């Protein structure tokens, strides 16, 4: 037989106080009735000694809160790259004494619908609806049954939900500035998208916004992008193929790869052509993949702030839950830090110059 659960009444009786006094103290509201510090400390010590745990379900019925939130994503939980979003969200929830339920749809719309319904059935106080990479999404119709926030995603059609995304435009500016500050003004090619902002992978917000920032900085400096190659995906093999094809046409001085995995492939293509990074070709990229600092030379990249995204999403969700947002809902843009490493240097001057 399992031991009987210690109740609030048990603690109150042991302390010689009323049940309402014990309730106020153990819920952190002892100061409301000016209960003495001595009584509060005695109650807390007795509760711990007796193994008392608050009945969250009962408290939820009184307050209208369950102290739980949901985190529903496509493939964030199983992604080694984006998993820090979960860590940030968990820690932000834990700081508030809130439990986080995690569900993953793997891109299946029926499973996504069922996960959201399951969260609502458990009466979560709110839901973070997340994507592994920044993209345009169709907001599920049943998401708004509780307070909600979009994380790493923007709605395809107008939506009343707050949005938390990386500041991809400023990231594009940072990547372009790295090359300009190193003295690059020509022979700059894009791998993965561009050169126009319409020549990007479908629904990729990151590609569009990175290109906006890149083009803005180069335009201000009077620098033209030599070419851009859209790829079927942003994986190493696509970076290798695009860079190999580029090298058959021309000799670049610098590459901006739209993510690090493309850059890994570009490194291999440059090595196959007996070109060295950065002496012959400078390379700058995005994301700060765990392997970026292991490349030789180490890859200069603009990092995706996964942990900060997860924390900010929970902050924004609680602003919704607590009614702290009014009118047009905000778009929270989280800074993407530059990781300056060894893959960019001044362009080599032509022989005889």
TrEMBL record:
The keyword Repressor applies. One of its GO terms (molecular function) is DNA-binding transcription factor activity. Keywords: DNA-binding, Repressor, Transcription, Transcription regulation. It comes from Amycolatopsis tolypomycina. Residues 328-353 are annotated as: Disordered. InterPro entries: HTH_LacI (IPR000843), LacI/GalR-like_sensor (IPR046335), Lambda_DNA-bd_dom_sf (IPR010982), Peripla_BP_I (IPR028082). It comes from the Bacteria. It holds the Pfam family Peripla_BP_3. This is Transcriptional regulator, LacI family. The keyword DNA-binding applies. Residues 6-63 form the HTH lacI-type domain.
């Amino acid at each position: 037989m399992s031991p009987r659960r210690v109740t609030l009444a048990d603690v109150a009786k042991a302390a010689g106080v009323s049940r309402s006094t014990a309730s106020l103290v153990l819920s952190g509201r002892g100061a409301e009735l000016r209960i003495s510090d001595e009584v509060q400390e005695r109650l807390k010590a007795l509760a711990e000694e007796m193994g008392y745990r608050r009945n969250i379900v009962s408290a939820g019925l009184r307050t209208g809160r369950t102290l739980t939130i949901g985190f529903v994503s496509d493939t964030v939980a199983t992604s080694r790259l984006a998993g820090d979003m979960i860590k940030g969200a968990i820690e932000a929830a834990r700081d508030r004494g809130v439990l986080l339920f995690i569900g993953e749809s793997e891109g299946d719309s029926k499973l996504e619908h069922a996960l959201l319904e399951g969260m609502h059935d458990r009466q979560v106080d709110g839901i973070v609806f997340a994507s592994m990479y920044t993209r345009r999404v169709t907001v599920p119709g049943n998401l708004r049954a509780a307070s909600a926030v979009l994380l790493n995603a923007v709605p395809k059609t107008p939506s009343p939900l707050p949005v938390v995304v990386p500041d991809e435009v400023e990231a594009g500016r940072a990547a372009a500035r790295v090359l300009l500050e190193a003295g690059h003004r020509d022979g700059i090619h894009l791998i993965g998208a561009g050169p126009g902002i319409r020549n990007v992978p479908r629904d990729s917000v990151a590609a569009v916004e990175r290109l906006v920032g890149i083009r803005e900085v180069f335009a201000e400096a009077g620098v033209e992008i030599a070419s851009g190659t859209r790829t079927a995906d942003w994986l190493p093999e696509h970076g290798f193929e695009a860079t190999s094809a580029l090298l058959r046409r021309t000799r670049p001085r610098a590459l901006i790869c739209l993510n690090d995995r493309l850059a890994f492939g570009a490194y291999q293509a440059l090595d196959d052509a007996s070109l060295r990074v950065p002496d012959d070709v400078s390379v700058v990229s995005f994301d700060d993949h765990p392997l970026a600092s292991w490349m030789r030379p180490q890859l200069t990249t603009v990092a995706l702030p996964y942990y900060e995204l997860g924390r900010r999403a929970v902050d924004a969700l609680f602003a919704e839950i607590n009614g702290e947002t009014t009118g047009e809902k905000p778009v929270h843009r989280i800074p993407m830090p530059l990781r300056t490493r060894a893959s960019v240097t001044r362009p080599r001057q032509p022989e005889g110059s």
